[in-house]
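Wait, mind explaining this?

_____
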Amino acid sequence: MKNSAVHPFFVGVLKVVLVVLCLGVAWQAAIVAFGVQPYIVPRPLAVVTAFIDGWRGIAQHAAFTLSAAALGLTFSALLASTIAISFALKPALEQMSMPVVLVFRSTPVAALAPIMTLIFGRGMSTSVAVVTIIAFFPILVNLMRGISSTDPNATELLHVYGASRGQQMRLIHLPFALPYLFTGLRVSGTAALLGAMLSEWITGSPGLGKLILDAGEMREIELLWAAVITSVAISLCVFWTTSAAETRLLRWKA
């Protein structure tokens, strides 16, 4: 029984390792074939060496970025869930508030980040605020769509039994909306890391964004690529983690 549980895990790890090796070989082959200079795109082994030499600093910056992204994503999910439920229970509230939400969403984040810096200062608070703004809208839209896509027969059945709108929301609307919530989280999860890094570029606070900016200015190209690849790896891990959580929590829909 244990072997059957462990076997898929090692198969997945082996697939990831093979994909990484294939990408490394393709990377090296492209550099050789097109004669790309090392100051533009370094060799894979040089990037690996830079990562090994500077892994402590990369890990510290990555932890700061990931913490800001996780906090911002959590706040945005809570805020979006509260607003989506409020809109579903009070349609008039949606009609009044949605234009404000759309205007706020249409404002470029690069323009909001300096304002957030003036309010929260240069630190994690600004990164969390920027991530919350970026991640909020995809979660809200998907949740609203999920709540409105509830099976009409289930809604009618609870109505016949005299269930209140709050009970209907808890018993059928929210369970039916969970897949849409995870879709929003997958979209917002990767965007959250980009938002945190954008905030770091603008405010100069610690994180992968600041590390990439500093490495570029100092012409430490290998370190720059190591930081970029680290951010991509974290984004993939966030996506896979969200997908795994969805599969585990939504077994009842199978």
